[in-house]
Amino acid sequence: MKIRDITNAIAAFAPLQYQESYDNAGLLFGNADWEVTGVLLTLDATEAVIEEAREKGCNLVVAHHPIVFGGLKKINGNNYVERVAIKAIKNDIAVYAAHTNLDNVRNGVSDMMASRLKLTDCRVLDPKRELLGKLYTFVPHAQAETVLNALFTAGAGHIGNYSEASFNVTGTGTYKAEEGAQPYIGQVGQRHLEPETKLEVIFPLYLESRVIQALLESHPYEEVAYDVVKLGNANKEVGSGLIGNLPQPMDELAFLQLVKEQFLTGCVRYTPLRGKPVQKVALCGGAGSFLLKKAIAAGADAYISADFKYHEFFDADNQIVVADIGHFESEQFTVELFYHILTEKFRNFAPLKSTIRTNPVNYL
């Protein structure tokens, strides 16, 4: 097994195209064609984690946070990022990060948080737009089913919990084959009228090349007519944060105690209580203050996230209870998510979970 087999499995679950513009997810160090000797899963690729990988014979570290976030102009070992880079490269250890792309997909980081509280009826809090495209093409009636199946296999036609979604309408296409053409139907030099089916399918834009390739390979015509349109629709399956419902309404203090227990945190910072039960809960792994207004607009009783600054707590404005549980604490179960992705894909392969607690924050 090569490193690219592991990274491709993670990217299939959380496409790199879904990472935020400021992010640096992907293969940071190493060669995708290296044979895998072992995989170590972690939240942060620290020096201690790289040493642990070396000791355990793992030449691939899969982390949630990219150790290289901005550009590296020098690698002299003057800070922990440079020291990690030197140690990883010196020991031929590859480092791969799945960060905001893993945050932004369903069944990703936010869903791991939601599962700790047994939230139901979950939906993305802030769905992303302009991630979808629509393909229009025209096919002779007899070949329409073949082309449609090829498009579905390539990943087109998925809308929420539905697959193989399309719209088909019949009409008449015309063309005249010029000298040098080899028409599938009709004669060179004569206008041909062909009963055709117009197919419309939606697809994730990151799959565009695969979908177009499937179209061209399955279509009978020498010259295939098609249009691709970028859609402004929100993709309800991709975006930041999550909102769902507790099984039963809870007293606010009881809810906060549940949060503290389930997220194994030594401290929950929270805004003034409102004297109302909590049932609808919004959450976001990592630094999530940017979603507070979305949580309020969605009618959440409480919002769980991390890294709120002092003045940002005021923004709750008695409309919601904010529970800041800590950055590490909100994302700590991402290691379990990595493990699940890889063991589901490779049944005879066992990645290792790092035993290093990388949280730089301690509590008294």
UniProtKB/TrEMBL annotation:
Report the domain of life of the source organism. Bacteria
Does the record bear Metal-binding in its keywords? yes
Question: Mind telling me which InterPro entries this protein's record contains?
Answer: DUF34/NIF3, DUF34/NIF3_bac, DUF34/NIF3_sf, N-reg_PII/ATP_PRibTrfase_C
- Where is it found, in Gene Ontology cellular component terms? cytoplasm
Annotated binding of a divalent metal cation 1, by residue: 65, 103, 327, 331
* MF GO annotations: metal ion binding
Name the keywords, alphabetized: Metal-binding
Detail which positions bind a divalent metal cation 2: 64
Assembly mode:
Homohexamer.
Q: What family name appears in the similarity comment?
A: Belongs to the GTP cyclohydrolase I type 2/NIF3 family.
Q: Which NCBIfam families match?
A: YbgI_SA1388
Question: What is the name listed in the Swiss-Prot or TrEMBL entry for this protein?
Answer: GTP cyclohydrolase 1 type 2 homolog
Q: What is the lineage of its organism?
A: Bacteria, Pseudomonadati, Bacteroidota, Chitinophagia, Chitinophagales
